[in-house]
Write a structure and sequence with these properties.
Cathepsin B, Chain A, two-stranded antiparallel sheet, alpha+beta, 2 domains, 16% strand
Length: 287
């Protein structure tokens, strides 16, 4: 199994794209609409925002994620027993119990990895985050410690309209509203609302990850747009990171008006820059 991992993926999504690749699904096409995405889902257990579009796109491309019931050790064991040998399972566990994880028996943190079920007492594990292959785990360890057991299975494809020019047009159409809504939310955090501004920092982090994944899509598409030096370059991502870090800083102090003002200026400028980028992409695609 050749593991893939690149910027923009967390351990959860890295496992999903690796299993999708094993199923023969063109997983990079699932990133084609992530630039304009703003309707993220919030995961309260892990305190982060996640893309909805990537999973919807993957299902349209032929890979559907289905959870197994692991509400108790017994229920998890029964679910694992029903899977056929060779089945690919995405397992979420406390890193404290994962032998190859740096946090093993020292710190508690969530982590996802891949297991291929075998008929014997142990099954091989694969971890894209750490490029680990052929670790081993028993069904008893999974059923005792897993907080999530997921199976990505092949399903019939449905039409999915994708393309760099089409996504650029969507950015031009929706970014002004995105800019207005987020600026209103950020400015609402002046002098207080530390928890809210912390959530906004996590939301911006999800936007950054989506842009890394969209860049990966462009780099592997025939459009040639990724080669343009103005599009999704290192300075672009550094500016986005400064917005995220500014929000985290604003979440730590009550007298944050100056910080919020600077964040708003940087964010507004970035959205204007992205609209300009999108307009250039549309022009280049039409030539």
């Amino acid at each position: 199994m050749n593991l893939v991992y690149f910027r923009g993926l967390n351990c959860y999504h890295a496992c999903i794209v690796n299993v999708a690749a094993l199923l023969g699904v063109r997983y990079r096409d699932a990133f084609a609409t992530l630039w304009s995405e703003t309707d993220f889902s919030y995961d309260p257990m892990h305190d982060l925002y996640l893309t909805k579009r990537m999973m919807a796109n993957l299902e349209a491309l032929g890979a559907k994620l289905e959870p197994l019931n692991c509400a108790s050790k017994q229920v998890a064991e029964e679910g694992l027993c029903r899977l056929c040998p060779g089945a690919w399972i995405i397992v979420g566990m406390d890193a404290f119990h994962i032998a190859w994880n740096p946090f093993y028996q020292s710190l508690h943190s969530f982590h996802y990895f891949i297991v291929q079920k075998e008929a014997g007492e142990r099954s091989p594990c694969f971890d894209p985050m750490y490029s680990q292959k052929e670790m081993w785990i028993t069904p008893e360890e999974m059923s005792a410690h897993a907080f999530a057991l997921l199976q990505l299975r092949k399903v019939p494809q449905t039409p999915l309209s994708i393309g760099a020019a089409q996504e650029a047009q969507e950015v031009v159409r929706t970014h002004p509203e995105t800019q207005a809504n987020l600026l209103e939310n950020i400015r609402g955090c002046v002098r207080g609302e530390q928890k809210k501004v912390g959530l906004l920092a996590r939301y911006v982090d999800a936007m950054i990850n989506n842009r890394y994944l969209y860049r990966n899509y462009l780099q592997n598409s025939p459009s040639g747009l990724a080669a343009h030096p103005e599009f999704f370059n290192d300075d672009f991502f550094a500016q986005w990171t400064s917005v995220k870090n500014g929000l985290y800083k604003a979440s730590l102090v009550s007298d944050n008006e100056h910080i919020i003002d600077e964040v708003c200026k940087k964010f507004s400028s970035l959205i204007d820059m992205e609209i300009s980028m999108a307009e250039k992409m549309i022009a280049m695609a039409s030539n």
